[in-house]
Amino acid sequence: MTQQDYAGAALGRFIADFPADGFSPALWHEGRRSLLNFFGGALGVAQDPAVATALKVMAPFSGPERATLIGRPEKLDAMGAAFVNCIAANLLDFDDTHLETVIHPTAAVAPPLLALAELRGFSGAAVLEAFLIGAEVECRIGVSVSPGHYARGWHITSTCGVFGAAAGCARLLGLDPAQSWTALGIAASQSAGLVENLPSAAKNVGMGNAARNGLLAALFAEAGYGAAPAAIEGRLGWARAMGDAPDVERITGGLGARWEIARNTYKPYPAGIVFHAVIDACLELREGLGEVADILVEGDQLLLDRGDRVLRNERDARVSIHHCVAVALSRGRAGVEDFSLAAVQDAEVAALRGKVRAGLDASLPRGAARVSVVLADGSRRVAEVRAPRGSEGRPMSDAELEAKFFANGGSAAQAEAVWGLDRGASVGPMMRLFAAR
Amino acid sequence: MTQQDYAGAALGRFIADFPADGFSPALWHEGRRSLLNFFGGALGVAQDPAVATALKVMAPFSGPERATLIGRPEKLDAMGAAFVNCIAANLLDFDDTHLETVIHPTAAVAPPLLALAELRGFSGAAVLEAFLIGAEVECRIGVSVSPGHYARGWHITSTCGVFGAAAGCARLLGLDPAQSWTALGIAASQSAGLVENLPSAAKNVGMGNAARNGLLAALFAEAGYGAAPAAIEGRLGWARAMGDAPDVERITGGLGARWEIARNTYKPYPAGIVFHAVIDACLELREGLGEVADILVEGDQLLLDRGDRVLRNERDARVSIHHCVAVALSRGRAGVEDFSLAAVQDAEVAALRGKVRAGLDASLPRGAARVSVVLADGSRRVAEVRAPRGSEGRPMSDAELEAKFFANGGSAAQAEAVWGLDRGASVGPMMRLFAAR
Q1: N or C: where does chain A have the smaller number of CB atoms within 10 Å of the terminal CB?
Q2: What is the dihedral of CA B297, B299, B305, B308, to 10 degrees?
Q3: Which residues partner with A292 through β-bridges?
Q4: Which family does it belong to (chains A, B) (predicted)?
């Protein structure tokens, strides 16, 4: 096997040589949608203590060149800004999802690109190109080891995010095919992040690292460091160490022709993605609903594993079947404010939560749900949802994405800047709109 | 299982509460020996291009507080200095070895401690304490997953180094038991580094990250971030993701009474540790040796796997049975200069290399070797070494360690400062001796 036969060689050529005019208009627009959703998510939590703490810890270790922190007045160097903006974008898992891998693709990839572009003057179009290339590499590597990789305990958004960040930064920096592959090889030695730590803030550190270490990998490749040709699929390489052998065909098959990132989806609700069908079913059957006596939610094992648990705080609320049902039925919506501590403690919501039971129906596909409500008069209403809002079968429209952006605190001027990102000679004016004064 | 039953709880108490006067004089001195060996290794390669490149890449991302880079005039912030000094200390694998795990314990642990101590004014004694605590945690976690972890493809010096750095920094920062454990939990989500990448500079990035991310973990724990209680041994935690379940008893059994770091060893030769017995055997039988016709080196499979390969450059020389035999027999030594490109190209050495054959003797224990030389007159000499110089059975003396330090370019004043490290009110004067003017 020569070096040219490894997946890395094909990825390196893709990163360096895919033509700037080779993106379809639909794909190009999906990139814009991903970025709008990303900016909104980061804005919505800009004041969260987890973000403030990350900034406080990183600030003494920031060089003089400064990049924007979304929704905040402070700045950090590109490494620090990549770290903090990535944490913010993924903090509530309200960001985008590549459903097959459950990767949230944009959080780790966009921040280092925006920071690099701000500091070195790259254009918005160059950022959008680099984002699509980076996110594509991230998702393809993720697909090649799914589902075993996540099942083994790897937080795939972190472990594959570092590849996406490295690939995107390599593209933006104009590295050649060999250097671009080397960036991925160096990223392989930095890939980390555990599912066990997901309920804790340690998850944020793993995410932030994916963004900043991907940037670091590209900078080291640019500076001449090397990597093993089989860093990904070698006998002692990334894929085997972190699970089983990769399905290399899934990494390289149809590269540049078929796009995984074209399948990106966006969440309408700030709750675990498996609860979206539950919420949609409740919204569907609530109109004119009388007094509720009993509620049964049915779904596959994953839904029960993730959602049938005790509720203590906002974090629990976002992964509680009971809470999702209660707010959707009582309030007719499931927005950020419906998962706040106030909503958790709301007496009407709490009463309704107490009437919810969850049961297994293994015949329902993953991501689907059936909600059966028995009313006080003994009558029964049932709604079943197989393609919830935001899923591949029922994607959010541009208008819905914009409404989500506004609900997260975004302004019309900011939204306009993101939609027109690829028309600006630099990302500076857009990033200035996202800096808090 | 309550949180108190996890390994982390015991490690957190050990890190925070082990009494400063609880170290035996022998253990305390072993700490000094580890640091002297560390400083020499980093000094010896201070001008290496790999170190210069690491500095160049990190410099724009350094905050204003400055810490010493060993053997160089430049400074970086604590995060950058930890990164670069760790790379230097481990660059040639000429650093220390905990033989059971093949962890090089000091490279990732000492640099962040020295940088933190320089910046915040901690004493040398506090650094030595924190080093022993950190290296102990590093080796115990490594022992608990050995040998399967390395065999799976994990570069254990990187993957466990981040725990050692986190534990040491937690001790130095005075974190409480819960915070100290949290630092390890955050480190678990940053643990990375692949064996596949070992022959490349990507290995250096993995090493540097272990040092700086361990520091980062402690700083985030100090700032209030959390981690999962079972981040190490949980079902979706570090040990299972990175291999099999840990032997928890090896992590916590006899903690504070029996010390893994007391078993630290130091290399007399800048070659792979499995070649040390080969070199010693050659040195033993060379006296008065006539013209050599044929040389047979025998050892276990690991020796053959690592050493029976084509020789192209200095890096290959350090892992070549043939070259180790040739310099030891012809020059009567195997120092840094005997693995230089000049030595590789030396005609006499090359001729002798051509006479070396390697064969399997599975009855020899790991780390042992037998060298049989047939002379031109048909006579035969055989030497077998089971405990090579520097191994646990035949440790290097203080004088030998000092000679190695001097051979690496260290001065008498520097050596004196390291031996007396624990007497200084701050590490500043010692670190100033290690900064190049």
Answers
A1: C
A2: 0
A3: A375
A4: Belongs to the PrpD family.
Residues B229, B369, single domain; the answer is no
8 A C-beta contact, residue B115 and residue B67:
yes
**CATH assignment of the domain containing B284:** 3.30.1330.120
Structural contact between residues A130 and A172, judged by C-beta atoms closer than 8 angstroms: yes
A346 lies in the same domain as A204? no
Suggest the residue from B87, B119, B194, B212 to mutate for an interface test with chain A (most A CBs closer than 10 A). Answer: B194
Q: Is residue B165 part of a domain?
A: yes
Q: Is there a contact between B57 and A219 if contact means CB atoms under 8 Å apart? A: yes
Task: Name the residue among B100, B114, B150, B103 with its Cα closest to residue B42.
Answer: B114
Region of poorest pLDDT, from A200-214, A406-420, B174-188, B288-302 = B288-302
CB contact under 8 A, A238 and B204: no
Q: How far is B161 from chain A (nearest CA, A)?
A: 13
**Looking at the predicted structure, is the pLDDT value of residue A366 above 70?**
yes
Secondary structure of residue B68 in the 3-state scheme: strand
How many Cβ atoms from other residues are within 10 Å of residue A74's Cβ?
Answer: 17
β-bridge partners, B103: B98
The shortest C-alpha distance from A351 to chain B (Å) reads 31
What's the rounded mean pLDDT across residues B190-203?
95
Cβ distance B196 to A153 less than 8 Å, yes or no, reads: no
User: Cβ distance A134 to A168 under 8 Å?
Assistant: yes
Q: Residues in chain A, how many?
A: 437
* Domain range enclosing B322: 273-385
A194 vs B77, B188, B199: nearest CB: B188
CB A164 within 8 A of CB A105: yes
CA–CA separation, A262 and A100 (whole Å) = 12
| Interchain proximity B209–A190, CB inside 8 Å | yes
Q: Is residue A83 domain-shared with residue A145, that is, in the same domain?
A: yes
- One DSSP character per residue, A177-226 reads HHHHHHHHHHHHTT---BGGGTTSTHHHHHHHHHHHHHHHHHHHHHTT--
Q: Which residues of A touch B152 (CB under 8 A)?
A: 236, 240-241
Contacts A61 to B, Cβ<8 Å: 61-63, 77-80
Per CB-CB distance under 8 Å, the chain B contacts of A202 are 182, 185-186, 188-189, 220, 225-228, 231
Cα–Cα dist B255/B252, whole Å: 5
Which positions in chain A touch B216 (Cβ < 8 Å)? 57, 205
Helix (H, G, I), strand (E, B) or coil at A297: strand
ipTM for the predicted complex:
0.94
Average pLDDT of span A338-355: 94
Contact B201 A227 (CB under 8 A): yes
Cα radius of gyration (chain A): 22
Tell which residue, B155, B113, B117, has the closest CA to residue B133.
B113
> Is there a single domain that holds both residue B127 and residue B164?
yes
Kindly list the residues from chain B whose CB atom is less than 8 angstroms away from the CB atom of residue A305. none
Nearest to A165 by CA among A202, A226, A208: A208
**A277 plus A306 within the same structural domain:** yes
Nearest CA in chain B to A52: B223
**Mean pLDDT, residues A212-232:** 97
The dihedral over CA atoms of A54, A56, A61, A66, expressed in degrees to the nearest 10, equals 90
Using a CB-CB cut-off of 8 Å, the residues of chain B touching A57 are 216, 219-220, 223
- Pair A57, A106 in one domain: yes
Element spanning A240, H or E = helix A238-241
User: In angstroms, rounded to a whole number, what is the distance separating the alpha carbons of residues B207 and B359?
Assistant: 33
Cβ neighbours of residue A74 under 8 Å, at least 6 residues apart?
Answer: A55, A59
| Contact yes or no for A223 and B193 at CB 8 A | no
Asked if B378 and B401 sit in the same domain, the reply is no
Q: What is the pLDDT of residues B311-356, one digit of tens each?
A: 888 888 988 999 999 999 999 999 989 999 999 999 999 999 999 9
Residues A233 and A311 in one domain: no
